[in-house]
Amino acid sequence: MSSMPPGPDHPAMSVAELTAQIKGLVEESFPSVWVTGEVSNFARPASGHCYFTLKDQHAQIRAVVWKGSAARLKFDLTDGLEIVCHGRLDLYAPRGSYQLVIDQAQPQGVGSLELALRQLKEKLTAEGLFDADRKRPLPSFPRRVGFVTSPTGAAIRDFLEVARRRWSGTQVLVIPTRVQGDGAAEEIAAAVQLANRVRPALDVLVVGRGGGSIEDLWCFNEAPVVRAVAASEIPTVSAVGHEIDVTLCDLAADVRAFTPSEAAERVIPSGDEFAGRVQTLHNRLHGTARRATQLRRQRLEALASRRPLARPYSLIQDHSGRLDELQLTAERAVRRLTDQHRRLLDAAAGRLHSLSPLAVLSRGYSITQDSKGRIVRDAAQLRPGERVSLRFAEGEASATVD
Question: pTM here?
Answer without folding.
Answer: 0.51
